[in-house]
Structures
1.
Amino acid sequence: MAVTDFFAGEIATELLKMLISITRKACLCKPSAEQLLHTINELLPIINEIKYSGVELPAIRQHQLDTISRALHDGYELAGKVLNSSRWNVYKNLQLSRKMDKVEKKISRFLQGPLQAHVLADVHHLMFDSNERFDRIEGSNRRLEQRLGSMIIDGGGDRWWAEEPMKIDDDELFELVKVGMELGKRKVKDMILDRDDLVVIGINGIGGSGKTTLAREICRDDDVRSYYNNKILFLTVSQSPNVEQLRQRIRDFLSECIIGYNNWNTVTPTLVVLDDVWSEPVLKQLILKVPGCKTLVVSRMKFSSLVLNSTYELELLREEDAISLFCHTAFGRTSIPPGADVDLIKQVVEKCKGLPLALKVIGAALRDQPEKYWEGAKKRLSRAIPICDSHETELLNRMKLSIDYLSEKVRNCFLDLGSFPEDKKIPLDILINIWTELHDIDEEEAFAILVELSNKNLLTLVNDSRAGDKYSSCYDISVSQHDVLRDLAIHMSSSLESVNQRKRMLMARREDGIPKEWQRNTETPFLARIVSIHTGEMREMDWSKMEFPKAEVLILNFDSTDYFLPHFIENMPKLRALVLINYSTKTAELHNLSVLGTLGNLRSLWLEKVTIPQLPTKAILPLANLHKISLLLCKINLHDQSEVDLSHLFPRLTELTMDHCIDMTILPSSICQVKTLKILNITNCESLEELPFDFGKLIFLQILRVYACPKLKMLPFGIKNLIWLEHIDISQCVNLHCLNEEIGACLSLKEIDMRECPQIKRLPKSLTVLRSLARVICDEELSWQWKELEQVLPGLCVQVAEQYFDLDWLTE
């Protein structure tokens, strides 16, 4: 009996302790809720500012921010329930407490994990932006010194120009024309700040007139930012918008602004800017009537007064401002140079009709040209008789002058740019692939053409800080283009009457299916060398039967989570480059992959934001001429891939890129079978933990990039077999703890890039035998060890990467 009482007493005591613990946890529920509310109110405005700053984010970062935003919303609602719950309802409070623990852990995981990767990425971009700005300032100072010291304007002979002509960018363009836009800025500011009766305001003007520049300057204005407390959302709509996605972004922005203001009963001033709107029905769907919210609509179109409360029509530049902008582009100064033909310059400027973009492009085309060239240009501009009453059509005909004077090869490369959707950055690697296949040029000449087009203001280069090095990748550079220049490329490519005879078949905007003009002519083969299609979801029945006997490049742009590859690919015997880009927010399932087995001449394959299934080896014949595969933002099915003989499927594959494949934890070992590989890029794969143990089978590998893989802890031991390896990039692998001792066997190694690798503390002794090593890029902490090796390796140059913040906190 005593024993029974003893155990019963012990059990009762334990139960009492448990009850006290539960009660204490329930009682602490409300203070925890108050603390959670405080944390959310601090975090949510910051997340909101990042998401809606007007900066286009990569899809993965946008997804992560959306996820944490939802978690913060859930936490906000949960904390409200806790504060409203009765303190005596212990069971309910215990449940709420457990939910709060989950929310806090979710937020904590984000702060300690992805957020640190975001910081690294942002610092990387800031480094590039800062370098670019300082380079620009340094270049401007250098040019100014040269002008002050040796300004020579030659008025005699066949040529007249200002020495060292300056390149103009969008910021400088606005500085030059802002006097002409000041009136418009003041009027639009009055509408969005002082007129409570105006809720939807428009900025209207033809393409290239500076509408977007004006809208961005208004958003940057101190008075506007102060009035709206930085709650400004800038969205580009374009001709082919994903309306539901845009609506969701606006809804999220407005709801977070209200929560961030911390008072549901207070009207929160917010501004939504919708740029490049083409359709009134689309515009109506994007206008959300929320108290305190104003919408600024930027468009070439004049929308009805039923939609817009007021519209400012952007005026073109006055003669004085137009001459200043033109002279800045053509001569590197803001006035007509002495000794120049004033009348001729004014006549050319007059033909540009005061349009900033036309002045910029035509001025660049005439830069450094002889006077007779200018006379011919003036006559050609004068003959640009409009096809219709549209000023914009006349503008395209006039701007065509700058393209006509390009060499045939450069002109064709410019026209190829019309193959890509508007308002999207074009990866340079795609352009290089297309140009090398279509125009019989090598990569170096293609890059030179790119620079020439950039210097003539026909495109804009957006490059990474790595770009320009011998071993830099074309993935580090992208290209953007004003939509009027894109329209010009499409206008010139579509000038022939018969669609079957065109060299380029391009879709100006996204459509539900194949254009009717194409469908009406399917009985006759299409002779285009490049075909670009932009649609939404496509099923098997949505494709028409077409033949493309001369097509060498096929670009499939789509916005869908399901996509059926067209059967007419089988009728493209000369196809050499295939590009599939999914612009949806989610990855797409591809169907009819077996059609790729018919492409015996295919040399380049680019897949973006699609799911890569297990390869149907029996259905796909070996792609004997495929040299390059690029997989970006793809989900890769790793199950049973080791059984696939990739060396049989791709017997000549020399370059493989896998970028932002975030679900990939290990590189498929089947890749090591492809012994023909010379370049392997595994970049920004945040889940990658290891490389295959038989990595050393890639004996002909020359370039290895595994940068920005934060979970990778070590390189494979098989690296010692890579005797032809010349370049290795392990930068931003923040958990890589060492360079393998085996790296000393890579006797051909010429360059190592290991910036931002804080875990690597010591260098292997085997490095002393790398007599070919010529360049190392590293952080300051390791630089002294490398500089000691300079005595043993006399040809070695150690470059210290600029450090903008301390990475020691990553080790915690």
2.
Amino acid sequence: MTSSTNQIPSWPWVGLDDCPILDWRPMEGRHFRCGSFQSSTSDEDLVEVGDGGTLDFSLAGDVPPLDREMAPGFLSYAGNGFDEIGQMRDFLEEPLPGVGTYEDFNTIDWVREKSRDRDRHREITNRSKESTFALIHSISDAFSGWLLMLLIGLSAGALAGLIDISTHWLTDLKEGVCLNGFWYNHEHCCWNSRNITFQDRDKCPEWQTWAELLTRKKNGGALAYSLNYFIYTAWALLFSLLAVLLVRGFAPYACGSGIPEIKTILSGFIIRGYLGKWTLLVKTVTLVLAVASGLSLGKEGPLVHVACCCGNILCHLFTKYRKNEAKRREVLSAAAAAGVSVAFGAPIGGVLFSLEEVSYYFPLKTLWRSFFAALVAAFTLRSINPFGNSRLVLFYVEFHAPWHLLELAPFVLLGVFGGLWGAAFIRANIAWCRRRKTTRLGRYPVAEVLVVTAATAVLAFPNQYTRMSTSELISELFNDCGRLDSSQLCDYVRNGTPGEGGGPDRLAGPEVQSAMWQLALALALKGVITVFTFGMKVPSGLFIPSMAVGAIVGRLLGVGMEQLALHHPDWVLFEAWCQPGADCITPGLYAMVGAAACLGGVTRMTVSLVVIMFELTGGLEYIVPLMAAAVTSKWVADAAAGRQGIYDSHIRLNGYPFLEAKEEFTHKTLAADAMRPRRPADPPLTALPQDAMTLGDVEGVLGSTGYSGYPVVLSRESQRLVGFVLRRDLLISIENARQTQEGIVTSSMVSFSDHSPPLPPNSPPILNLRPILDLSPFTVTDHTPMEIVVDIFRKLGLRQCLVTHNGKLLGIITKKDVLKHIAQLANQDPDSILFN
């Protein structure tokens, strides 16, 4: 191939701007300096040689010493820098500042990072045999991972407890205030009251609604109702306004769930600031405000983001995690497990969630440390006891009645509903979010949040099941009615007397019938308003709203089955196992199964979902109903809307460079079909010749192109591949050579070979850049099946591979090329996958 100056547009979202550790031993009396190289380089760009101006580097005119004996009349300098006693300088002894780091919106080199860590570990192991201090350092290095997990668990548990306590207080503040202390929520306010009965334990004189406080009347009628209605809405608007203003002004990355971005980060993508301290602070505060505002969202998903922020910040305390992006991602996988552990009170479910849903690379060592971090986080939250019930979650329940085999039919029916609702929700939410991104709606995030909050508050207040927090609603729906329960859902008629609670012959009383209508209206509101809420510029989780929708449907179905069994005990369905006068059906169990079904339909979780749900209830005997519902919902949702869950759909919507391992590549295409250039009309791929360019030529290429890497070939005529060099390596190496090596000028030849070519007399010395050359870039032939290429990119975390034919360079395939190729084969717009 020949040289070309045609430019190919660059995409700044996956880059190769990092470089291997390049250490130069300084010459006598000199020091090396690495400048700041700000560029939007990307590994998605073809590497081309362009003519043009050179970069402004300072010149040096001294002649360096000879590095080896040359033929008479010729002078050569390899650039490796021999000192006075003829020893070659070690490039790997003292790292240069800026080497090995990544630009924003770039992808890390997994293979290189793991190799670095192995070299570091090997060096520490070898040094540990030399002295006691080195041995202690080796032990502390091995223990640092467990210490980091301990700190992550403690911080995640403490923040989760703070968020839970603050959320309950602000949620109750919308309805009233405690006279004994405004910092008490409703439940805590009435704990020590002596003027309450068990039936009315939520009503105490110490707690007053805003209408009672302002009008000094206990029963104010329509005026009191209107006043409470107005203040409830006003508080909701104030909380949501503060949340969106804080997010917009201080930490834009604090909005949303965070799980799609965390999945992308764990796959190797760099998003600077997404897991920073400002994001952590703002997300913690605004999450409390957003949940307390009454919006149809939860705190469970954002708690994963909060825990990962803690993990990322604490990584800076330990050198091996601060300087290695691959090791840091192992920590973030464990932090995600800790986040789910404190969100649901499910340590084991948290580990499985991290493994099944968010992690890209999950070795066995990470599994153990994730388990430890989840354990510490759950223990910390349990010690804080934010709910006052010695439990890790608000809606912990225990069912005492067993389930029957014939009940699998309604459980599977709930799974079908969960799958259909999940598919419909994903389609509707993605369509609305795409409209928000492509229309003027996205320019007014504050107005959008206020409008949705106002609509939610106005519609939610008249219904007691939408007025209460979503977690309390789920707790109410999961509840297995007993004799002392005063809930409206437990107003059964026993022996002709309403209000006696549970027991044999539980006929639905008037309160139960009224509750069914209210739950149906709550279902409609939750199902619709969540579509518009998820994705706004406030922290918003989807776990709890999805579970609420499923729990409502499950409770409705459970009560229906209960009444059928009561009124028609002679039916074949009930005759064999439901004896007259016995409690055959547990509506709370149906609510739990429905919650699992809807959550599975939205997220496509299976194993981790079942474990989380049975950890919530504390009963192992309900695993089979949960498994049946979870598997059915996933099958139905996959058939209705594809295999992508809500988080994968948002990754695709935002154009993040994420190769989903769950999707199978079934097409019979070759590497030549995806590489660039593909057609004869495409600009030819050009590369740096091994020994035929001057320093000015190389600087001209760097100055006129923004590409992040350049293949190096034997010569422009042969196009035999030698290696691959990164732009960032070139910039740092050239600047340091200019500053520290005498005789390096613009006309100096640049060599990537181990034997420098001979030079005429009085020529400037050669700058040898072979130490920064990757001599083993990943290559495939043009006849390699794309199925294999896709697997290589997925399993090795590659950013690019070079395509050859009989050893000659033909083209390049990047992760973006793979994504575009998959989109084209799926009849989708290839440009839709670009990151914005």
3.
Amino acid sequence: MAMAVNETNSDSLSPNEEPKLKYDRMGNDVQNILLKDAVSCICVHTKFICLGTQWGVIHLLDHEGNTVPISQDNNQKDLQAHAIAVNKISVDLNGDYIASCSDDGKVLVYGLYTDDNAHNLTLGRVVKSVALDPFYFKSGSGRRFLTGDNKLMLYEKTFLNRLRSTVLCECEGYVQAISWHERFVAWASEVGVRVYDLVARCSLGLIQWEKSPNRSIEDFRCNLLWSAHKTLMIGWVDTIRICVIRKRSHIELQTRDVTEFLVDPIYTFQTDYFISGLGPLDDQLVLLGVPKECNAETGKAQRPVLLVADYKDCEFCEVSTDTLNIRGYEEYSCNDYYLDMLIEENRFFIVSPKDIVVASPYDIDDRVNWLAEEGKFEKAMSVLEEVGGKTSKHSMVTVGVQYLDHLISEHLYEEAAILCARICKNDKVLWENQILKFVDVQQLRSISAYVPKNLEQRLSPQIYELIFCEYLKVDPVGFLKLVQEWNPALYRTAVIVDKVLGHLMTTKVENIYLEALALLYCYQKRFDKALTTYLKLQHNDVFKLITDHDMYYVIYDRILDLITLDCDKAISILVQGRAKVPVEVVEKQLENNDEYLFKYLDAYSKVEPNGRYHGKLVRLYAKYARKKLLLFLKCSDNYPIQEALDVCQSNEFYPEMVFLLGRIGNTREALQIIIEKLQDINQAIYFCQEHNDRELWTDLIKHTIDKPECVTLLLKRIGNYVDPRMLIQNIQSGCEIKDLKESLAKMMCDYHLQMSVQEACKVITLRNYFDLHEKLIVNQQRGISVTDEFLCSVCQGRIIIRDLSDASDLVVYNCRHSFHIECLPDGVKHNNCSVCSAVKM
């Protein structure tokens, strides 16, 4: 079926506005009919189409334009109904009977399935219109039909199957159009349109048409259509009227002599076109018209238009106007075009003498097609999503692929990548096919963030490797990021390693490539190469590599490199892995670098208290951490004191020397260093107090007696430790001592306080002694409870015997040891327990 060219009037429909209707030129057998004849009228039924031609022939077609046999024996393809052009065809609701009329004066009622109730009338006058009762097929309906010439005639079947005719109305001019719906009939004559009630057998009124001095309404065909129950559409010349058959109220009927129903014109519109046909499209109006003005260049008629308009708000508002490509339109007037329709399907049949075009609303596929052609792919996909993402012709994938191609052609690569993820989802083949399009434009970087990375949905390894290669060439940072983030199971790491090595051969070596290479080696479990690469990079990830993969065994000869890279981290790893990296190995590696060795041994000594390297640490502390040396010396007992003292002496570390000398018992030399080198009398006093040695105090007094300021301090603090007379007797006469009175007073106070404390302690001690002695005597004088549990300490027999014949004397001491008298040596009772006496001895 060929598609009619659809030209849209830009004045009434924006180029970006979605069209309402699509157009298909009817083909098949109807094309052969139109080659030989021309269409004069059409009647569309839900079952078929009836075409009347200029040669008086009636053709029966299906809705696709194929000929349907019209005779009951299926041998006759057409019906020669009239001698000249068929003016009008009418079909009953059931599609069982066809009626036609012509200027030859004949009226034909033809049964498609039976000859019963068929008629062939010769009226002898021009018959312009005919209408079958919609229920003509029903028995009991009266088998009625109407004809229109210069009067409106009703024919109905009577008793004995006779046909009776009744003149319903004498008309002015010809009855050029009739439309029958239920009990109402509308017809048009020169004065206007009348509506007749066949039940009441009365006219409901005349709808007069305005006459123009420039044109006569007789020259234009009136188009009548019952669009709905009791709704009549009229299109005549350039005016549209929509009328409603309304039932009068009971009050009106009782008070006035009027008909039960009346015709109420509710809408009247004037158009810019001569009207060839009209009909409803849901809540809108479809109009077939011809522009009033001829073509300015050729002087001939312009193309007809099919117009869709809104009219419910009392305004005629054009929604879309489509200019139709009808064959031979230049030679036709508005009366040469016909519009018939299938209201239930919203299908419109546009007829000219040599052409038939079918207009129908855009379905989902048509909308998607148009939106895609207009580049509105997002809207097209939204339309598909509303119907579940798929139709008979389109799917989210097919439209999405078109959209993807469009975005790539417009260089909108990021948007294309997002769309790719949206349409491909879990379809691996579709993913790979679309990714190849990004390969062609070298924009794999745009799609890299959206490719599936889940192992269950992964694509072919080659796809991921292509992405790596593009990043490798143009984006080193992005390449490293991919290596860090992507699961190595997605691709072949060996391939990427080879690509990186090849790239490094031809370009300047960048650290970022080496970092990526180290990660790839890790993925391959080639940790030794990864370690070498990280060390070459001086990258801190080397430490994580060692701990994560237990690589202590390979770093024996690289300890210095690791410490040089990051001393703290390296030493932390070495200390943590001391069971795998022996301290001897580290010591050997660092033997030429005392500072690193010190830091390592310092950390090692804190977790290993064996003190094996404390002697070496003394020397290293003296060299690199003098402030820690004294504390170390005090906390450790695992260093050679003499060696430590030699180190301190060589470096003149006097506080450390004082401690070491004190530790080996050379307190007098230590005190001398405090006095002479450190010149700290307070420390000297503390030192003497700590060791509490009378000789030390004597030496301190001897060395400081000639220094009045030192004498003052001694006077204040010596009273608690030694006899103050030792100091006072050595003070030279005439020596000026600052604060002598206060110092002496404090010294005497301290000395008396000490004496008082000693006397008090003595009294308390004596009192405690006598109290305890008295308590002891009382306890020893108490009786002892002897039970069955007591055993003889010699024979281990029970002390208490129930059989008195075997009983013997007992001896029980306060220490609770018990004996049979005969078990004692020589049977002699002693004052002291023999067991306890033996223990004391």
4.
Amino acid sequence: MDVGGNGGGLIVNKQRAMLPNKSRGEFVRNQRKDSEGFSESPDLEFEYADTDKWSAELSELYSYTEGPEFLLNRKCFEEEFRTHVSDKKWTELDVAQHRAHAMRLLDGLEVITREKRLKVSRAILYMVQGTFAECSSEAEVQHWMRYNIFLLLDVGTFTALVELLNMEVDNSAACSSAVRKPAISLADSTDLRVLLNIMYLMVVTIQQEDPADSPDWRATRETFKTELGSPLYNNEPISVMLFGMVTKFCSGHAPHFPMKKVLMLLWKSILFTLGGFEQLQNIKVSKREELRLPPLPEDSIRVIRSMRAASPPASASDLIEQQQKRARREHKSLIKQDNLDAFNEKDPYKSDDPREDEDDNDDNDNSMEAEPFPMERDEVMPPPILHPPSERVNFPKGLPWAPKVREKDIEHFLESSRSKFIGYTLGNDTDTVVGLPRPIHESIRTLKQHKYISIAEIQIAKEDEFQKTPLSGGEEDVEMCSTELLYQGILPSLPQYMIALLKILLAAAPTSKAKTDSINILADVLPEEMPTTVLQSMKLGVDVNRHKEIIVKAISAILLLLLKHFKLNHVYQFEYMAQHLVFANCIPLILKFFNQNIISYITAKNSISVLDFPYCVVHELPELTAESLEAGDNNQFCWRNLFSCINLLRILNKLTKWKHSRTMMLVVFKSAPILKRALKVKQAMMQLYVLKLLKVQTKYLGRQWRKSNMKTMSAIYQKVRHRLNDDWAYGNDLDARPWDFQAEECALRANIERFNSRRYDNNQRNPDFLPVDNCLQSVLGQRVDLPEDFQMNYDLWLEREVFSKPISWEELLQ
């Protein structure tokens, strides 16, 4: 944990007290050197997107341990190719010859022998990798990748691969063998890895749009996108099959599954079929138009991209040095005693107890900027500092977000105004203003101008109507889009899927200790023979850390995409998934993830660029040394780690927004100091989501916390959207009621279960609401299949049930 963390100030102050005077200055100078990178770091030039660059996404598929397999794939392809074409290279053939060879390889996938099938799979993988041996540059490799992948898709390779993957997943012999093994390595998952590599490269490459694509390729892309999201493969979307692999792995029945590749393919399949953040924004705009709601006040993606980062929090060592400078200046300038008294009066909250000083330092070290006292400079009343005009231009005019108001907020405001001025209330009436003073009229007008009705509110109101009037409400028109099909596919096992994803996230988090790893996520990175030299050990260490980072990136993206798409499709689908994430301890897990030196995580250099695909197959590899591995690349930050952090913060925001009980969980788990440390990262989007999480809990953190963190409060005011009438900075909130987690979650759960049973559970429908056939002819005309023993004893039945019983015809006719 870094020094700026919770309790950091206390430790540093105790260390200062124990140091001799001479070495104390050296200690502080060294601390200052260590912390300069944090408190004076430049803005990170990071642009948030659905994915990293295409080349980066390709390279992350392979672990460095898989390096030798590139040449093995090439060998398998060339052996197969030379039996049919002996005098030409692949790049010299025409389209018809390319297609003929692709068909031959596809036929080879149907052989019974596993070894032959694996050879053909490797040959196809080499094609998908761009037949790199015949290319001289990375751009050429990527060109042939696109060409070969569209060719293979056109001849039907993807469907064959899905069938093979299904067969490998159900391979009980491989599963039982892996369960018995004490240590699982790369060799145990060879067949699965080859298949998943091909499928991932196909999905990622076809998803990548290029202006130079032919109309045929564009049509192929749309067809493939539709097929991938439809229940064509094994009567379920491919994402559901991959979710099944995740749960099977976490249950311990298939420890050899290459989980990183499964998760990456799952993420890219969801991204391709459902759409990324730009598509989400477009869907939201069109849905609001359909529901005749006012347009969105702004494009959130554009607003966030135009934001600038705030100054990061000062570290504890910075504050110590400020105190030392202040003390030195006081001695040097021989300030009069009355001035010293005036200085002490400047800080009304300063006490004589040194322990309280230490606590104050702990609180202050995380504020957005270190606020200097007047006496920190040589004069008591310094002249005003003239800022150059260039600085002033950079500040945005006005606040970045248009304020919003909910209908509920207007109701609360009117109720409190009526009870105050008139002495009665009118329930849900937001129009009657009789008897209220004119300023209240103007306030209501302003509130209504900024009223925002969300799609979720309309969906909840419609669902309530369906529940109240099941007969007269009519049939609901459910659009069978990709999101709806995916939800229907994962609905039966959604709780297990969420638990499995969070288990893997916990195992991949850098804060996890070895003893808490209940599952082994390194099955597809560890070699058969463990390293014997220091250099090999260093390389494997980098590979393992990179492997974990990629898993965190994939899981965070999967969860965020699903939450956002489900919320747009129907809010109760989102609430169902969110509630199961909360029940599976997602909130404390994300807080645990951030309870680390987040700057170190974001600037981590766990990559060896010369071993990344496609660089490693085109260029001559230089000799690796321990120094080059330690140096890493020259990037200012690690894109995937910053992307993961922002995704996890967004997930935390989604889970806690408008949920009082979950907000209180943030308070109970002491998230404020953890989140404030994350503000050290000078990236506007990350800071925005941290500030949002701090804003929702500010009213519960107490007056002293707010007093000590005024810079953080100012940053919240500047960057986070305002909700009119929201007393977020004070304790006067109508929702600040006792924490009743169970009641709130149970009410929500009841609504979700009613929605799921009404829309998806055909067996549980109330028989009283089912249609009844009242026509005598159609009822009597129905053919009824009677059992054999009844037909044999039909005469006895007639005698006992009909002839022997008296019939009162008068009663029957009446």
